[in-house]
Amino acid sequence: MAGNEPARDRSAPNLRSTVCPVPREQRPLEQYKELQASWFFVWPHNGDRGLATPLIRAWLIVLPLTMLVASGSVPLRHNLPQLVVAGAVAGLVVPMLLLVRQWLGWTTLQRRLMATSVEYEESGWYDGQVWEKPVEWRQQDLLVATHEVKPVLWRLQQAMAIIAALMLVGASLCQAL
Questions:
Q1: 14: left (phi over 0), alpha (psi -120 to 50) or beta
Q2: Are 64 and 91 in contact (CB under 8 A)?
Q3: Which residue, among 163, 9, 3, has the nearest Cα to 89 in the 3D structure?
Q4: For 73-95, how does the pLDDT look when each residue is reduced to its tens digit (9 = 90+)?
Q5: What does R_g of the chain's alpha carbons equal in angstroms?
Q6: Which of 15, 22, 112, 155 is the most exposed place for a label (fewest CB within 10 A)?
Q7: Which residues does 113 contact at the CB level (< 8 Å), separation at least 6?
């Protein structure tokens, strides 16, 4: 050992020394970093407030349009409380679609992190390959999937449940008015 070199722990996995044929942008950990850097997919990763704020903004942006569409109904036009509730419930569709898109992206990532192998394309859709992850890669991917991605998916599921409940309550309220 040279004089200035730090001693390496032989038991620690050296993920960089493993030759990986998967292109860098198709590796699950790289995809995780991309989702974290994305302005859209980072919402649920930033906590409850980081998710709620853009969803409320999206709902408020679409609300005037849904109110305008709801006002086209003659029975709703003559019943203002029912018009407001119908427009508000219809406006919840956009935040729900945003949540579904995020859930699909994070679920796909979790599936790739939890898998024992990585499916990838070298140059296009027609040359799909499968690479078996080494144990060290599997362990690291499993840790990220368990401690980073799973809470994000839980947060997204909670938000979708809340919006679905609001839609049901709003629809029931609209019928009761």
A1: beta
A2: no
A3: 163
A4: 888 888 888 889 999 999 999 99
A5: 23
A6: 15
A7: 28, 29, 32, 141, 142, 144, 145, 149
Cα–Cα distances (Å) from 137 to 24, 27, 107, 148, in that order, read 14, 10, 19, 16
Q: How far apart are CA 157 and CA 91, in angstroms?
A: 19
Burial class (CB in 10 A: 0-12, 13-18, 19+), 59: buried
DSSP 3-state of 176: helix
Cα distances (angstroms) measured from residue 146 to each of 33, 34, 47, 101: 15, 18, 16, 21
Find where tokens 């109110």 sit: 67
What single DSSP character describes residue 158? H
Structure tokens at 169: 């309550």
pTM comes to: 0.82
